Amino acid sequence: MQFTLKIYRGTHKKQYFEEFEFELKPGDNVISCLMEIQKNPVNKKGEKVEPVAWEQGCLEEVCGSCSMLVNGKPRQACTAIIERIIKETGSNTITLAPFSKFPLMRDLVVDRTKLFNDLKRVSAWIDSDGTFIEGFGPKISQEKQETMYVLSTCMSCACCSESCPQVNKDSDYVGPAPISQARLFNENPTGKIQAPSRLRSLMTKGGIAECGNAQNCVQVCPKQIPLTESIAAIGRDVTMEATKEFFGSKERD
Amino acid sequence: MNKAKKEVIVVGGGLAGLSCTMKLAEQGFFVKLISVTKVKRSHSVCAQGGINAAVNIKGEDDSPLIHAYDTIKGGDFLADQPPIVEMCMTAPKIIMMMDRFGCTFNRTKEGNIDFRRFGGTFYNRTAFCGASTGQQLLYALDEQVRRYEVKGLVEKFETHEFMRLILDENKIARGIVVQDLMTLNLSIMKADAVVIATGGPGLVFRKSTNSTFCTGAANGRLYMQGMKYANPEFIQIHPTAIPGSDKLRLMSESIRGEGGRVWVYGDSSKKIRTPDGREIPCGKTNEPWFFLEELYPAIGNLVPRDIGAREVLRVCEMGLGVDGKNQVYLDVTHLPQAVHQKLESVLEIYEKFTGEDPRKVPMRIFPAVHYSMGGGWVDWPAADDKDRWSRYRHMTNLEGCFNIGESDYQYHGANRLGANSLLSCIYSGLLAGCEIPRYLENLTAGHQESKGMIFDEALKMEVEFKKDLFSRNGKENVFKLHEEMSDYLVSNVTVKRTNKELAKTIDFIKEIRERYQNISLADHGSILNQTYVFANQFKYMTELALTMTKGALLRDEFRGSHYKPEFPNRDDEKFLKKTIATYSKEEPIISYEPVDIRHLKPIKRDYSKAGKVQAHLENIPENIKLPI
What we know:
The complex is a heterodimer.
Chain A: E1 2-11, E2 14-23, H1 30-39, E3 67-70, E4 73-76, H2 82-89, E5 93-97, E6 104-106, E7 109-110, H3 113-121, H4 142-152, H5 159-163, H6 176-187, H7 195-201, H8 216-220, H9 227-246
Parallel strand pairs in A: 1-5
Antiparallel strand pairs in A: 1-2, 3-4, 3-5, 6-7
Helix pairs in contact in A: 4-6, 6-9
Chain B: E1 7-11, H1 15-26, E2 30-35, E3 51-52, H2 64-74, H3 81-100, E4 115-117, E5 124-127, H4 133-150, E6 154-158, E7 160-167, E8 173-180, E9 186-190, E10 193-196, H5 217-224, E11 229-230, E12 235-242, E13 249-250, H6 254-257, E14 261-265, E15 267-273, E16 279-282, E17 288-289, H7 291-295, H8 305-317, E18 328-331, H9 337-342, H10 344-354, E19 363-372, E20 375-376, E21 401-403, H11 421-442, H12 452-471, H13 478-492, H14 499-516, H15 530-554, H16 572-575, E22 577-582, E23 589-594
């Protein structure tokens, strides 16, 4: 069986669709097809073209590199198994496009640096005393570990930002992932010490108030991170923190 | 110390590069961190099972010295022993440090860090975060480094590639030539110490468990500039991966550590030779035959990886593979749900890529290229060596250029034990972070005093190679050449090697190298031209392939991952020595160096009977100073 990848490619303001045709092999995914194009860069019309540019890394959905729109849905391309998509959609044409909420570099590659800068904004780390201290960190219950582990599997792929109507070129909204990271470090018994400053960083422009509760993020997250739960939890804590500040309470737990 | 001298370049942002960067920044050094990707996406994220440390919380009388014993034996006595001893002694401290950084280790009921069993040992010594331990460790270090970035001590150059080391007239490192992968712009970056932490060369074999970043090109470039490349022939084949057309996806050893069993349907009409020389039937016909458990009753499914990979291949070659194909079952269907949960992230990978639920149907797996024990040669003076403080641990033979993590050759010898790689990466990074300040302190002149010429010349060489590649106008496609070369290597330079095929492989790689002169790039643009970037890397991949193949050809013995049926025994008399490859135009020059075996004299590496042993290591120095 033959199928077509219809790829929205090019550079800023010079984007166009180009189609490539393939013979279906068992186990094919979007990446293995893009690799085929490198070996034989000829489009469906039989013209020699430049191979398509894309980002890739682990190819097992743990690094977050290969984010793109597959049939309009933000996801990792490595787990986009061709046979399954054709079965689901009933069509043997699959559309690939770069993310739309980040600066386009070329073809399927965008610059997601903003997401990493937003991790700085929310201080997504433990403020450790460094490598000289000895001994274990605080004990952590199995339940707490499970909660934190799931939050900590966020690979900064930016699917959540792409799906969020509040993330766009006119907004500074940090998006769901950094908020969920703030929750991760506020949950940690050591990280909790800096919780107030993380919460304050989300009170200003681009912070949590910009969430419009569309709930797209949690549906597209490839790691099934409970992003809306994180946003709700941080939302509550931000309100508490703001109230404490309003009444000038020094007590912070 | 002169302030202007406090600048270091670290190339690579996996566990090794990040721990080195963190350690240097902590001491007030300014670090330029170069990476071909966002450091958070580095290949360390793929490590699944765990990290070893003899913390001994399970009442097993485990200790760092037993861990060292297991590691030395697991590496079939090819690894220098003092580095292993100090690494294993540091391991518990590393776990504690990562714990304090918020790494999400699995917990016991009391809230302590939990430990599981892993290959090549009888102890519960492996700390883990679900089945994505590498990812969690990497994130914890990425977060610490981001903190230093905010403090202005670290500057990241992501989507930039190391192209060349800049050496002055005295052969001392003074910087690097770097390429922006978005614009293909080449530029100079100056510093007085350069750390290479660029991971393994899995992509030389094209399909492996490695991320696509792991081309080995940085080490290949340094090798062509005169860096000694050690033990190249020792490539670890992981016994359990999912076959695929773009990648062979790892199915963690932790699956077996948690009770997963490897089997095929038996055939009592066939006979197999056990490690102690008996002929036994291959199980009962049409019944599951747990061949690892039968061949290695003491350690069973947790045999070291080299042994596991060979036995899987042997069983398949006897026609016993599942459906007659090159695949065997890895089975977790009998394990309780709580165990499935601990393995969730790997079981999910299996399900996503095959469409089958491994909780209900046994997984089908086959060995895959996984890790390079070999790498850049680095110095490693032991604690009680007289010249300890006039030498530098982890410095290559190119002065001022250090090499750490999978890209160096220490710690693992002829075979790496599972869950020792995350440890060696973090440990070597911290260690280099302690050695470099001393190196800079002792350096008499900084790069500011170097002649401008050395920088201009280095840049010119890269500009010219780039021009050369763009101007090539032949009929070859570099991606197809890669496929041809790697298919050949997978057939002849992995689990089973023969001198006849190895010799042919050397000729074949040389032929590929010739044909590479006749490539033409399908893309002549300057924005994100991935075809050119790969074409540039491929030159160095062919050179590394030659070191692996020639190293294997000349080593007429069976040791660890290097198996030659023609020479079925370890030959300590002739080959208890490390391979050193030095670049030469036609093919590598191979020489040898003695192995430092001061703590444990070589013994037979037997896993068929021995259980826990009283490990006795001799001559442990009293003045060991650990990096944390």
